[in-house]
């Protein structure tokens, strides 16, 4: 299948999955917890992941799937074609708000991001990117990010990191809160990366993200010139969870050098 056909195939699968998620609002959703009381998962997360995997296995038997809910393959390296899938990114929002969540999908070949999709299900907004072919908000091509400065930036981050915590020096985070134009906390890493790529926020910072949270967004970020790294400035590893900062290139360095101070670098 060539890349155009693949793009059409993926979009139609994502729209169908979105349709299923919207339909799930009409029936009972069963909510479970995972690692802790606020780490939620529902039957819909699992069913949507299984829906994708069924289709991918049928139509691309040589491809592998790395999905959050564990129905895919056991991925220990990224050779060949790997689909990194988060069926619902922002499950807490899905459960409590019925909005502000997304399907997140990245397609990687030998570890290189080729295609990225983030679907805001309730708003029917699809962000996507093709390596070397640009990033799009629905049919609209997204422009390379304009230069900005910290004092004109809006930063996506969980408010927790401005309170005393084990992970970062919260005094430095408080300085960031003071110095920027505004802070936002949407609760979906994938949507925040789509907002970064479309210039609605200028950076997104998280203590701990998993490969499926960011795989699609990383392809998108690259197409508009955004920069992503760990807090210490290292490259993103798509095999395990780590700290994450993606930003407009004009503020990324300042963010990691002056405002994000990990306690255990
Ligand atoms: P999820 O809803 O798919 O679990 C919430 O601020 C963001 O962080 C969401 O994108 C959420 O994804 C993600 N997230 C929640 N718990 C996480 C964890 N333990 N590790 C990595 N990412 C997590
Ligand atoms: Ca989860
Ligand atoms: Ca997620
Ligand atoms: Ca998820």
UniProtKB/TrEMBL annotation:
Catalytic activity: a myo-inositol phosphate + H2O = myo-inositol + phosphate
UniProt entry keywords in alphabetical sequence: Hydrolase, Magnesium, Metal-binding
CDD domains to which the protein is assigned, alphabetical: IMPase_like
The EC number(s) this enzyme carries: 3.1.3.25
Cross-referenced Pfam families: Inositol_P
Entry annotated with the keyword Magnesium: yes
Entries under Gene3D superfamilies matching the protein: 3.40.190.80, Fructose-1,6-Bisphosphatase, subunit A, domain 1 (3.30.540.10)
Superkingdom, taxonomy of origin: Bacteria
Classification via PANTHER family: INOSITOL MONOPHOSPHATASE, INOSITOL-1-MONOPHOSPHATASE-RELATED
Protein name as annotated: inositol-phosphate phosphatase
